[in-house]
């Protein structure tokens, strides 16, 4: 009976250990998972899609370039908070991600005024 008891106890300990390791591995994987943000970039004046615009995760080298229809998709590294969107002839934008998965923006030309004309 003692042999069965020791064997059973050892098997339970091993089972609990394996369950804990599996749980730790799952939570570590969850912590390392990244999100994705997609969107479209257009010209603020004409509403035309903008191709070749750089969408960068601030503080990293992770970036995407908009396609000819103005769309982009970027994978977010852990801790990503801000998109920096820039392109030749346009004002650079910094957009807070705030957990969003879709961010569409309109870019003003670099020399354009933001004043309203009446």
Q: How far is it from the N-terminal to the C-terminal residue, by CA? A: 94 Å
User: What oligomeric assembly is this protein in?
Assistant: single chain
Spatial order of strands in the largest sheet: 3-2-5-6
How much of the sequence lies in strands comes to 25-35%
CATH overall fold name of the largest domain? Immunoglobulin-like
If helices are DSSP runs of H or I spanning 4 or more residues, what is the number of helices? 1
Relative helix content: 25-40%
- Please state the second-level CATH architecture of the largest domain: Sandwich
Cα-atom Rg, whole angstroms? 25 Å
Helix and strand run: HEEEEEEE
Mean pLDDT metric: 81
Number of strands: 7
Largest sheet: 4 strands, antiparallel
What general form does the structure show? Answer: elongated
Task: Describe the structure using short key phrases.
elongated; four-stranded antiparallel beta sheet; alpha+beta; Immunoglobulin-like; 118 residues; three-stranded mixed beta sheet; 29% strand
Give a description of the structure.
The structure is a single chain. By secondary structure, this protein is an alpha+beta fold. It folds into 2 domains: 1-33; 34-107, Immunoglobulin-like. Helices cover 26% and strands 29% of the residues. The chain has 1 helix and 7 strands. The protein has one helix spanning 2-32, and strands at residues 35-43, 54-57, 63-65, 71-76, 82-86, 93-96, 105-107. Strands 3-2-5-6 form a 4-stranded antiparallel beta sheet, with no helix packed on it. A 3-stranded mixed beta sheet has the order 4-1-7, with no helix packed on it. Strand 2 (54-57) and strand 3 form a beta hairpin. It is elongated, with a radius of gyration of 25 Å. The model is unreliable at 24-33 (pLDDT under 50).
């Amino acid at each position: 009976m003692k042999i069965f008891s020791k064997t059973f106890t050892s098997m339970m300990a091993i089972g609990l250990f394996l369950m804990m390791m599996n749980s730790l591995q799952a939570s570590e994987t969850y912590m390392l998972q990244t999100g994705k943000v997609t969107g479209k970039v257009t010209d603020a004046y004409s509403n035309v899609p903008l191709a070749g615009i750089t969408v960068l995760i601030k503080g990293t080298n992770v970036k995407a370039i908009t396609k000819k229809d103005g769309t982009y998709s970027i994978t977010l590294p852990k801790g990503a908070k801000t998109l920096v969107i820039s392109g030749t002839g346009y004002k650079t934008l910094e957009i807070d991600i705030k957990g969003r998965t879709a961010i569409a923006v309109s870019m003003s030309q670099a020399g354009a005024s933001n004043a309203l004309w009446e």
